[in-house]
Design goal:
Strand order of the largest sheet: 3-2-1-4-8-6-9
Number of helices: 12
Helix content: 40-55%
Shape: globular
CATH class of the largest domain: Alpha Beta
Oligomer: single chain
Length: about 375
């Protein structure tokens, strides 16, 4: 048992030590000067019943300081509220910079609407975000498309969740967002991109078309931001952008049932991942679970102090990875000073221990037919 525990600990040390370092490398506060040319960009925003947020989302994009031309392609995925009316007003006010598309009946998920928007986009450079997202700065567009201008095919960005109180669900959702970002960014930097987040993702239109769009997984409601990337993106042509000014902010789901459905939908497409991605992600999850399970058993043996020492070392790496990310996570909105950091450490410790049973539950529930979700 001790041997297995130490192997699991070694795997976790490597993940939290090496991977977090590469996922969120330290960057200069001074942004490099931008040089042209600046090709036109199509920003795709799919929406369905987003009358509360769609205006703020599109206005935040319109305020982008991009030297070249860009359009906003707003795709109405069968809204039944006033979302489309709000977008039409912006179409009239912006002299055509905002375009409203209505593809008609679509299947569950947003892939039909997204594919319709991309295929009707006027420009080669495609930047995606969600209708409930706001940009972190006026430089979001220029920073997210810089790698495309330099020859990259895919750009993986970071999508944060806005602070909205101290509810457990909000804090856990932000913490898990950091954990997910840590994995997909670090894998991509090691040459194994397996997913991005539709809240902040860019690629060449030719990449989407050459990949066959979403044709390989039209039978699944999800997969637009992971199966497309994982099955088609190449390491050398995939770039991660983690600067704070290049991030988006999204609202939290607000309830456990909604959050659970979102995560189950994402988890349910994992069986379509490439085998190498499944194996590596499985090893990360397995080592995490064994570390806590066997460590708990060792607490009731004479080796308890060794188990506690190893746990303390790993926890320092977890805290380091969490704070390097710069994500708003479980410490978002905390009071300044020592007490806030102390509380944050406890929150991270608890949520870290809960990740293993959380993903086990998602994996089991993800095998259920969609109609039972």
């Amino acid at each position: 048992m001790l041997t297995v525990f130490l192997f699991a600990a070694a795997a976790q040390f490597f993940f939290w030590g090496m991977f977090s370092h590469y996922a969120f490398p330290k960057q200069s506060q001074v942004q490099p000067a931008e040089t042209g040319p600046f090709p036109p960009v199509s920003v795709i925003v799919c929406f369905r019943n987003e009358e509360e947020m769609i205006d703020n989302c599109l206005v935040s994009i319109l305020k982008q300081e991009y030297p070249g031309d860009f359009e906003i392609v707003a795709v109405d995925d069968n809204s039944t509220d006033k979302s489309a009316t709000i977008v039409r007003q912006l179409v009239d006010e912006t002299d055509g910079r905002v375009r409203l598309l209505q593809p008609g009946p679509t299947r569950p998920g947003k892939k039909d609407a997204l594919a319709f928007g991309i295929n009707n986009a006027r420009h080669e450079h495609i930047l995606l975000t969600d209708a409930d997202c706001l940009t972190r700065s006026h430089n979001w567009l220029i920073l997210m498309t810089r790698p495309l201008r330099q020859g990259a095919e895919v750009v993986l960005g970071v999508g944060e969740y806005a602070y909205n109180g101290w509810k457990i669900i909000d804090r856990f959702q932000r913490f898990e967002a950091m954990y997910v970002a840590l994995k997909y960014l670090s894998f991509a930097r090691f040459g194994l991109p397996y997913m991005g987040v539709g809240r902040n993702l860019a690629y060449q239109k030719s990449f989407f078309q050459r990949s066959g769009g979403f044709a390989a997984h039209t039978d699944l409601p999800g997969g637009d931001d992971d199966l497309l990337i994982g099955n088609n993106a190449l390491g050398p042509s995939t770039v991660c952008v983690t600067r704070m000014h290049a991030r988006t902010m999204s609202r939290l789901s607000g309830s456990w049932p909604v959050f659970l459905r979102q995560r189950m939908r994402h988890q349910s497409v994992g069986f379509r991942y490439r085998p190498v991605h499944q194996v590596l992600l499985g090893l990360v999850a397995l080592s995490h679970g064994l570390f806590f399970l066997l460590g708990l058993f060792l607490l009731f043996t004479p080796l308890r102090w060794l188990a506690l020492f190893v746990y303390a070392l790993r926890f320092l790496l977890v805290l380091r990875g969490f704070r390097r990310s710069g994500l708003q996570g479980a410490n978002a909105g905390a009071k300044k000073g020592y007490k806030a950091q102390y509380e944050s450490a406890w929150v991270v410790a608890v949520f870290d221990a809960l990740l293993a049973p959380w993903y086990l539950m998602l994996g089991l529930l993800g095998t259920l037919p969609a109609r039972r979700w």
